[in-house]
Design brief:
The structure is a single chain. The chain is of the alpha+beta class. 29% of the residues lie in helices and 32% in strands. The protein contains three helices and four strands. A four-stranded antiparallel sheet has the order 2-3-1-4. Helix 1 runs antiparallel to helix 3. The two termini are 28 Å apart.
């Protein structure tokens, strides 16, 4: 969800499984009015969900966006999915901001990471 080029470049840490991921892949439409503000609000709002672990985002030069949200359990993911402001943003996204999107939800069973010292 992040649309902030100044954000530090680092992946979300590897968490102890199991946990859940929501992979949101988008192609944006021409109409982006209000997107930046709503996106920033969603980034702030999701942080208040108990069990929210973090988020990774990437955007290709061709316009494909990929956002991965990490959640401790299915209840946390459900709370985010059913949040009233988030539901309103989803409707606006379908009406204005996205040409297409896919959402994949998965339970993570293995996770590890590496950071150069």
């Amino acid at each position: 969800m992040s649309d902030h080029p100044e954000a530090p470049v680092a992946p979300v840490e590897a968490f102890e499984p199991p946990y859940y991921v929501a992979v949101f892949t988008t192609v944006r439409s021409q109409d982006q009015s209000g997107y930046r503000e709503t996106n920033a609000r969603m980034e702030d709002l999701v942080k208040d969900v108990p069990g929210y672990l973090g988020m990774d985002h990437a955007q290709t030069p061709g316009g494909l966006g990929i956002t991965v949200g990490y959640f401790r359990d299915a209840d946390a993911l459900t709370e985010w999915r059913t949040n009233a402001e988030h539901l309103a943003a989803q409707q606006r996204g379908r009406a204005d901001w996205y040409q297409s999107y896919t959402l994949h939800v998965a339970k993570v069973e293995r996770s590890h990471g590496f950071t150069r010292a």
